[in-house]
Structure formats: C-alpha cells, structure tokens
Design brief:
Largest sheet: 9 strands, mixed
CATH class of the largest domain: Mainly Beta
Number of domains: 3
CATH architecture of the largest domain: Sandwich
Number of strands: 32
Structural class: mainly beta
Helix content: under 10%
Oligomer: single chain
Distance between the termini: 7 Å
Number of helices: 0
Shape: elongated
C-alpha cells in the first residue's frame, strides 16, 4: 500500500500573559490627584483597571475607553445601590466618573462592578448586560466586586477586567488546492449558536437570547502551511457543539464551503483554535488539532498532518457507504459528482441508480481501509493511497 505524507505546519500568534494597569500606584491613595474633575474631592472614589489579555484582543482600556460602573453598599450585585447610572471615561491617565461618587461618614466602604463598552444608562441591569456579537466588539467584565474603604485609606477600587466572549480562530492550510485561496468571509451557525445574549457581569455567564445570520469579512490568502500570524478570528457567545451541531461557512475564491464543527466546548474567556485543510475536494476540520487556549497561556504547537491518501471508486448504485479506516483521528472528504461531504464513520452518500459515479475519498491519518460490501462498486483506484 502506498502512502504519501503532506506536511502541515501552522503557527499561531504568540500569546502572552499581560496585565496592564492604567492607574499608577503612586496615585492610589492620593485623594487630591486629578481624576478628571476640576475640583476633585478628597472623598472621591477612584478606579484602576487591569485587563487580563493576549494578542489580537483588547490589551488595555486606554484613552476614551468607557465603562458602566455599578457602585454598591455590599459585595453582591443584589446589594443596595449607592449610586446609579455611573459612566467611567478614561482621560489623561485616569478614570473620570460621571456623576462623581464620594464616600460619606455613613458609607465609607463601597463595592464596585463594571463592564465595557459603556451602554446607555437605564438600558439594562448588571445581571443582563446586552451582548451582540454581530458588532464583533470585545466585551470586558469585572467579575466579583472591587472594594474601596475610605477609613482604611483605600480610595481606589481595583478592577480586574476579563473577556466575556469566546474567540474562535480558524487556521486553514492547502493540500493540492490550485486556486488562489482568498478567504473573504466566515460565519458560524447552529441551534446552540446565539448572536445576542445577556451577560451577568459578576460571573461572566451569558444567556443566549436571539439568533440571526451574520458573517465576518476577511481578506486573507491561504498559505500552503497555514497562517503564521494575523489568523482569522471572530467573537462568539460561548457555546458547545457536543449537544447540538454547528456549521462553519467559509467563502474562499467566491465559493462557500459548509463544514460541521468537531465536538468541542467553545468557552468564554478562551480562544478555541481550529485547524482546517482545503483541498480540491473540499474544506475539512482537523479535529485532532482543535485546541482551547486560556487568554493568559502562551503557545500553539500543532502536530503534522500525515498519511494522506486518496481512493477513487466507480460506483453504480443508489448509495455509497463510506469505507471503514484504521488509524487514529482519521478525517477527510468525500466527493461524489457535485456532492461534497466530510468523512464520518458509518456515513453514506446518495447516488443516481443506473449511472456510474466517480466517488473520491481522501483521508489523513488512515493506515488501511475495508468495505462492508462490494455491491455496485465497479472499480477502485488505489494508486494515490
């Protein structure tokens, strides 16, 4: 039996564990320093933000960044509001609060929650911050409350902002594909794939509320070995393809390919890296290479795709049952006339009875194959396997 190996070498933008502080420690306990107000009070509440992040996403809340701020008298979102409708704007190295928030003798301990970007006051409560991934905006939330206590000299509430959405990254390589390989759009669809939802800013949990069609535009030419940097990515509401099927639509050289996701949890605050191969016969996921990377983790070391083989069957039957393959993590494509499918154990493709059809079966990682029946099979070309 003949095997040919196709080397698939893919790179990912190096991830880093970066914490960016937008308010220096020297200002923390200085109630007289400028917080954006012309006449700051010595009892004014101040904010400091950290963003736990990686490359390709928000690394800091910088100049003109905005947040909704919720100031409570206790450490829970259900605690009594101390002040409502507060907007924080980052200006000249500090957060400015409007309206301002000040400690009093009766309330010298305050608890702060926040979420970015800012949405108009009164449009939501902190248990249901509206998320819409068609906007493709990085959503940051504070999680548990940040405390400040005037009598202890702590007038700055330190907020550690986290990423609420899931980042899905798609690294595509080519195998014998002769076109230019221009990727122009990606979209994700499925019963469990929501485009709108409500975020609890204290936990990061998002409850899906609505689905609508959307796609993200790209202008990337696929490299034979996959992209080394600037890999196409999109924000998604966290979901799972284990309980309900989801599909990726990819428009390449003007043609739209639809492929089914492998079973995976696409988690909020994580980057899920999918590897795919484009061949003349279609686009297919490499399920054995799917990775979930924490936002503060730092490497992507994909293995090589190997043991590529192609079988060509001439079939005169109403259907063709896929061969059974030996090997670990076998994946591939089935092409029968104008029909393109991803290989699946026990799968089949419908044909036109009374007509001979060429059925091309390409796989990676297979070490052998068998057929349940030879009925309707006129010949098998194994010269490329």
């Amino acid at each position: 039996m003949k095997f040919s190996k196709y080397l698939y070498i893919a790179g990912l933008v190096a991830l880093g564990s970066t914490v960016v502080t937008s308010c220096s420690d020297s200002k923390e306990n200085d109630p007289g320093s400028n917080s954006g107000n012309n006449t700051p009070s010595e009892k004014a509440l101040r904010l400091s933000t950290n963003v736990l992040t990686e490359a390709q996403v928000t690394t800091e809340l910088g100049e003109a960044a905005t947040m909704n701020v919720f100031v409570k008298t206790g450490s829970s979102l259900s605690s009594v509001d101390y002040k409502q409708g507060v907007k924080a704007t980052y200006q000249n190295g500090d957060w400015s609060l409007s309206p301002s928030v000040e400690f009093t003798d009766q309330n010298n301990a305050l608890f702060v929650f926040a979420v970015s970007p800012f949405k108009a006051s009164g449009s939501f409560d902190p248990l249901r911050y509206p998320v819409d991934v068609t906007e493709q905006v990085d959503v940051l939330y504070s999680g548990s409350a940040a405390a400040a206590n005037y009598t202890q000299g702590i007038t700055t509430a330190r907020l550690t902002m986290k990423h609420a959405l899931a980042m899905a990254t798609f690294n595509i390589s080519k195998s014998s594909y002769v076109g230019e390989g221009k990727l122009t759009a990606l979209s994700v669809n499925g019963e469990s794939v929501f485009t709108e939802g409500d975020l609890d800013i204290s936990t990061g949990n998002i409850t899906g509320t609505n689905r609508k069609a959307f796609s993200v535009a790209f202008d990337k030419t696929i490299d034979a070995a996959g992209w080394k940097s600037d890999i196409p990515s999109m924000w998604l509401i966290p979901t799972s393809t284990k309980a309900a099927e989801a599909t990726l639509s990819a428009t390449i050289d003007g043609k739209t390919y639809e492929v089914t996701f492998p079973q995976v949890d696409i988690r909020g605050g994580f980057q899920t890296i999918f590897h795919l191969i484009l061949s003349p016969n279609g686009l297919v996921f490499r399920p054995d290479q799917t990775e979930t990377v924490s936002l503060n983790q730092g490497t992507d070391d994909p293995q090589l795709a190997q043991l590529y083989g192609q079988l060509v069957f001439k079939v005169n039957a109403a259907e063709f049952k896929f061969p059974s393959f030996t090997g670990d993590n076998v994946f591939g494509n089935i092409v029968a006339g104008s029909t393109m499918l991803n290989y699946a154990i026990g799968g089949k493709v419908l044909l036109s009875a009374g007509t001979t059809t060429d059925v091309v079966v390409e796989t990676w990682n297979s070490t052998g194959f068998s057929l349940d029946s030879l009925e309707g099979i006129e010949s098998i070309d194994i010269s490329q396997y």
